[in-house]
Amino acid sequence: MAGQSRKWMILVAVIWIQAFTGTNFDFSAYSSEMKKVLGISQVQLNYLAVASDMGKVLGWSSGLALMYFPLWTVLFMAAFMGLFGYGIQWLVICNVISLPYILVFFLCLLAGCSICWFNTVCFVLCIKNFPANRALALSLTVSYNGVSAALYALAGDAISASSSSLYLLLNSLVPLIVSIAALVPILRQPSVDPLSPEAVRSDSIMFLLLNVLAVLTGVYLLLFGSNTSDTSPSRLLLGGAIFLLVFPLCVPGVVYARHWFHHTVHSSFQLRGSGFILVDDDDLELHKRLVSRETSYNNLNGSSLSDDEVCEYRSSSQKLCNKEEDSARCCEKMMEKDQLVMLGEEHPAHILVGRLDFWLYYMAYFCGGTIGLVYSNNLGQIAQSLGHSSNTTLLLTLYSSFSFFGRLLSAAPDYVRAKFYFARTGWLTIALLPTPVAFFLLAALSNSTAALRVGTALIGLSSGFIFAAAVSVTSELFGPNSVGVNHNILITNIPIGSLIYGVLAAVIYDGNVGRGLKLMFSDSVVCMGRDCYFLTFVLWGCLSVVGLVCSLLLFIRTKHAYDAFERNRALVEPQRNWSSNSIA
Question: Does the keyword section mention Transmembrane (predicted)?
Answer without folding.
Answer: yes
